[in-house]
Specification:
With about 350 residues, the chain is of the alpha/beta class. The chain is built from 17 helices and 6 strands. The protein is globular, with a radius of gyration of 25 Å.
């Protein structure tokens, strides 16, 4: 952070120039990230995204192919390597140098769409998703015409620097044009997308997601400034993310029962640990279906989801690494009864 940043922040604060103050603070955050002080840079970005300030409505009229997305939902935690790339997008957009088209590729549940929402919050932009139901048409040549109209619609928005366009699962339009399995009509549609990306207003941020990167049209890949791989989770990453998800959900459901040690043992039984989207659904279901009068019922339910076919006894649970207290929680049988049965097995 430079002296001029401090002077400007004080100046804009005393002038109550909120817009200029936010712009200066944003520049400070980008500078911290550029100098590898990501923790402080991310913290400033988070404060800016939570600040309730007036943003002009970018799209007031009826839009044929775009639908506004609510970005208020919670995000899925990301490993550091992916988080660094996402924050790199924030930096790139901040430079205003026309680096504005990004492709998120990875398996379902890896956080691609949620990361687009997070970017919209950080950049204080409105997020609009392309509605493929209206875009794709069965009439010959109509889909290509619709795509041309879509990009014309995008390029003519009144406040291009205040929106992000999301092509969620762009696979519907971007499969390899040379593939014999691809319909000729969709090949023409892909060509229309190529032209649209080439002529995209550089002040508009565009994000596309795909689950089928290996079948993606290579010419289209080259149109994106950066491809971010969301498959880069290690099993350790996912175990740590499971704990973050658990803590967030326990606060939402106002649970008091916390046993991280037992939770870790249950998650360790998952091989492999699923990606965050599925992981969140599994943990959320276990909590939502649990008895509110039993603090640890969700752990018992989570174990049953992890081992739905388990038909073993207390000895089997003990061999899995569960203590007698753990087994009491999982089976809802008293420790004394469990101990007697285990002692009986040793006779």
């Amino acid at each position: 952070m430079k002296k001029k940043n401090i002077i400007n922040l004080i100046k804009y604060y005393t002038e109550r120039n909120d817009s200029a103050f936010r712009d200066e603070a944003y520049e400070v955050a980008v500078d911290f990230n550029r100098n590898n002080d990501h923790e402080l840079g991310d913290y400033i970005m988070a404060l800016l995204s939570d600040k309730n300030t007036f943003v002009p409505q970018a799209l007031n009229g009826k839009m044929d192919y775009l639908r506004k997305v609510d970005t208020a939902s919670s995000t899925l935690p990301l490993p550091e390597c992916i988080k660094d790339d996402v924050m790199g997008i924030v930096n790139a957009v901040g430079y205003g140098a026309g680096v504005n088209k990004f492709l998120f590729q990875g398996a379902p549940g890896t956080g691609k769409t949620e990361s687009a929402k997070q970017l919209a919050r950080i950049l204080n932009r409105q997020l609009y998703i392309v509605d493929f139901d209206f875009l794709v048409d069965s009439k010959l040549g109509q889909t290509s015409k619709n795509i041309a109209e879509l990009f014309a619609e995008i390029n003519n928005v009144p406040y291009p620097e205040q929106i992000i366009i999301l092509f969620d699962e762009i696979d519907a339009l971007a499969l390899d044009r040379t593939s014999s399995r691809d319909l000729r009509e969709m090949g023409r549609a892909t060509s229309s997308v190529l032209k649209g990306l080439d002529g995209l207003n550089t002040r508009i941020v565009l994000i596309a997601t795909t689950n089928l990167f290996d079948s993606f049209d290579k010419a289209l890949i080259r149109r994106f400034d950066k491809v971010i791989d969301f498959n880069r989770y290690t099993q350790q990453d996912l175990r740590e993310i499971a704990e973050i998800i658990l803590e967030d959900l326990l606060q939402q459901f106002k649970f008091q029962g916390r046993n991280i040690r037992l939770f870790r043992k249950i998650i360790a039984l998952m091989n492999p640990v699923p990606y965050p989207g599925d992981l969140k659904n599994i943990i959320k279901t276990a909590i939502a279906f649990s008895n509110p009068h039993e603090d640890f019922d969700y752990l018992s339910r989570l174990f049953r989801q992890t081992r739905p076919d388990f038909a073993g006894d207390y000895k089997d649970l003990q061999n899995m690494g569960f203590s007698i207290r753990d087994i009491e929680i999982l089976s809802k049988v008293s420790k004394s009864s469990i101990s007697r049965e285990l002692m009986g097995d040793k006779k």
